[in-house]
Amino acid sequence: MVSVITIPAPNKRGAAMFTSQSKLDTVMKERIQMMLKIAAENE
């Protein structure tokens, strides 16, 4: 069986244009951590 987990990246041409790179990095790290947690729980 194969599973695919996707997470959205911040849209730098949308609302994220008005957000600092530091905040975007934090959001992306949180999303990656969430994805890894889901993957680990569904191994």
Helices and strands in order:
Elements: H1 21-41
What is the terminal separation in angstroms?
A: 11 Å
Number of separate domains:
1
Shape: elongated
Structural class: mainly alpha
Q: Regions with pLDDT < 50 over 5+ consecutive residues?
A: none
Number of strands: 0
Structure explained in plain terms:
Helix content is 49%, strand content 0%. With 43 residues, the chain is mainly α. The protein has one domain (1-43). The mean pLDDT is 91.
Q: What's a concise summary of this model?
A:
By secondary structure, this protein is an all-alpha fold. The chain is 49% helix and 0% strand.
Which terms summarize this structure?
about 50% helix, mainly alpha, 1 helix, single chain, about 45 residues
